[in-house]
């Protein structure tokens, strides 16, 4: 039986998993993110104990994604201490000698959602996946391919119009202040309210302010890409939050173009338990194996 591997590499933990030919997970382990040599070796140890025919890696970044560039396969200018300029892909290739697909963490999630939608018989030409958590990132899958060959799209760092009740908040992005990430990522709750977001009820007006910003991001994405679906994952996103985002989006769109029903267009992930990236990695590994044959 052919098996596929997944590494979902995050700043606090690496989730390594194995899936079967149907891309169903059969085993998983969680490895704390410690210094690179130690963390990557533990990943290698796991896959040596659970051999796979191919592997998909979806990693935190920024990443070197251009195969013609000298930093291809590297975690490059990350703020994660000790991880700058880490040859992640090269280490795994030298250690495991299997075909490996390499992309960003949010691209992995986007691809998993793309695969899940197609499995349910949905027509998905273009899918955009936003993760809203500690930071804000996005991935774009267009007809089964990623957009952004020279690097990952940084759609969390676009600027949005400020909400009139939020003009005194400077934003928390260390580079841009009040970009989208600086206004809607999870830590903004503590910056605004001195409490964690999970303790803030959806009735709090802060959620309406954030919905206004996320609706603008959805509008920009809609006007630029005209996707079939925009998926919102991460700790900040929930169905309750999207119930605030959808009417804000409709007001901003003002009927200018036709989009699918908003309950089908601005959605939470199909794959449960934050499993989108793992499914995406399995599928990307499967594609890498086919390409190598």
Report on this model:
With 293 residues, the protein is α/β, with parallel strands linked by helices. The chain has two domains: 4-104 and 273-292, 2-Layer Sandwich (Nucleotidyltransferase, domain 5); 121-267, Nucleotidyltransferase, domain 5 (2-Layer Sandwich), CATH 3.30.420. The chain has helices at 36-49, 88-96, 105-119, 180-184, 188-193, 205-225, 239-253, 262-265, 276-292, and strands spanning 4-9, 13-19, 25-32, 54-59, 100-104, 126-132, 136-142, 145-146, 229-233, 266-267. A five-stranded mixed beta sheet has the order 3-2-1-4-5. A hairpin with a 5-residue loop joins strand 2 (13-19) and strand 3 (25-32). Helix 3 (105-119) crosses helix 9 (276-292). The longest helix has 21 residues, at 205-225. It is globular. This is fructokinase. Keywords: ATP-binding, Carbohydrate metabolism, Kinase, Magnesium, Metal-binding, Nucleotide-binding, Transferase, Zinc.
Task: Offer a few descriptive terms.
293 residues, globular, Nucleotidyltransferase, domain 5, five-stranded mixed β-sheet, carbohydrate metabolism, single chain
């Amino acid at each position: 039986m052919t098996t596929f591997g997944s590494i979902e590499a995050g700043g606090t933990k690496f989730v390594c998993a194995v899936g079967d030919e149907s891309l169903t997970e059969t085993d998983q382990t969680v490895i704390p993110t410690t210094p690179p040599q130690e963390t990557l070796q533990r990943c290698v140890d796991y896959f040596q104990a659970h051999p796979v025919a191919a592997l998909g890696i979806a990693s935190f970044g920024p990443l070197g994604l251009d195969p013609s560039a000298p930093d291809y396969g590297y975690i490059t200018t990350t703020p994660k201490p000790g991880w700058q300029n880490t040859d992640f892909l090269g280490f795994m290739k030298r250690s495991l000698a299997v075909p490996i697909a390499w992309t960003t963490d949010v691209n992995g999630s986007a691809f998993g959602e793309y695969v899940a939608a197609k499995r349910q018989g949905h027509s998905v030409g273009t899918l955009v996946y936003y993760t809203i958590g500690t930071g804000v990132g996005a991935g774009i899958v267009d007809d089964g391919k990623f957009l952004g060959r020279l690097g990952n799209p940084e759609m969390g760092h676009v600027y949005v119009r400020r909400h009139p009740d939020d003009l005194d908040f400077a934003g928390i992005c260390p580079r841009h202040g009040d970009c989208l990430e600086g206004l809607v990522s999870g830590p903004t709750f503590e910056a605004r309210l001195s409490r964690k977001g999970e303790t803030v009820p959806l009735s709090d007006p802060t959620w309406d302010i954030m919905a206004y910003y996320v609706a603008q991001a959805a509008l920009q994405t809609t006007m630029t890409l005209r996707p079939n679906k925009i998926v919102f994952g991460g700790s900040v996103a929930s169905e309750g939050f999207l119930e605030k985002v959808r009417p804000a989006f409709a007001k901003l769109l003002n009927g200018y173009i036709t989009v699918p029903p908003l309950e089908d267009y601005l959605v939470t992930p199909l794959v449960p338990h934050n499993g989108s990236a793992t499914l995406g990695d399995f599928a990307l590994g499967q594609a890498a194996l086919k390409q190598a044959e």
